[in-house]
Amino acid sequence: MNLNHYPIIAIGASIASISFIRTLRDQADNRKILLIHGEDRLPYKRTKINKNMVRGFDKDEFKMADEKWYSDNHVDLIYDRALKLDAEEKTVSTKNGHVYYYDKLLLATGASAVIPKVTGVEPSEIHGVQNAYDVDRVLQTCSGKQRFLIIGGGVEGIETADQLMRKGKQVILASRMKLPLQKLFPEALLKTLVEKIQSKGVLLFNGVSVSNVHKTDDHYNVNLKGQELRFDAIIACTGAIPNTDLARKAGLKVEKGILVNEYLQTSDKDIMAAGDVAQHARGMVTGLWHAAEHQGKLAAMNLLDKPQEHTLPPFRLKTEVFGLFMFSAAYEELIPGVEEAIEEQHGDIHRIMYYNDNQLKSVVFLNDKDRAKTYQQALFEHWDKKKVIDELPLPPKISFTFMA
Length: 404
Prior knowledge:
Blueprint lengths: L4 E7 L3 H12 L6 E5 L29 H6 L2 E5 L2 E5 L4 E4 L4 E9 L3 E3 L12 E2 L4 H10 L5 E5 L3 H12 L3 E6 L11 H13 L3 E4 L7 E3 L2 E6 L2 E5 L1 E4 L3 E3 L2 H5 L8 E2 L11 E3 L4 E2 L9 H15 L12 E6 L2 E6 L10 E7 L2 E8 L2 E8 L5 H9 L4 H7 L7 E4 L2
């Protein structure tokens, strides 16, 4: 047998790969696995990275498992980069000159930060915050800089703005959206977020597009809504693009992401894809931690001939920014015809519960952090209004707001 042969190879040490491996071992499958990791640290929880820019972090602080876990589970973890996939020969060639043979392959290569085209600045001058390398680069190269322009009013943009403000930096936040996080929360809750953002001194510009900046010596200038603003560094939080090059060059079917069927299988029967790189029915690329974890598990079960169709768990977001704990679940999935929305406030807690046929369909709230898991359970189990009132009570009487 070729010494570089593995029954299973996983490319990309994301949560999808770790979940894939854990599930195989839970199912008593002990075949040797090669995990190819293109970064310089143990596989880590990516969602922790830009949330900890204030204090910084050790190289392996957010690891998902220690080195012993990999050896105990018969996983050869290598720090190398896959450069070529030959689906016919079933080989993976790496940057360090190695060639590995596989029987089954999982592609979990994740996504990279989208760097927008901005006239007047080179792409290399625009920072992302998608992974540890990106954030390390921001911390190292921008440590002496004071004024930052952040493009993007999504979750990463808000979290990055919060972190930089807590580091004592000055922040300009520019977003194309009418309100930050508007895809995840209704305006009633976002008013509080906007007030908090502005009270911290962030210059917030909504409904603007940054297409042009001017560089002068060691700083930049941008004009937003008639105001000429100076800044020292630019960070793009404008989304992520699936890392599909390996699959595309190998001849797999690729659109936005690697096309997979309901069983996470690609156009090659021996190759699966999961996580941020996989494209599902209706062109969906999930881009979510818990969704990638779920897909890794399903990929393992399907590899074991215990097929489980991919079902997307309800979208949920938890974030702590500008002194607020914010929770949104399945809000994007609300469809016209939701029958009832119940809005309640008590102290700094503000929540809205959306119902259809007396079943909970979506939840958004501020500042009820200790019960976040209960809200999540309520949504997953589609609690009715009475159970919500009994299990998740708030002191004031409930006010009903009906939606057409």
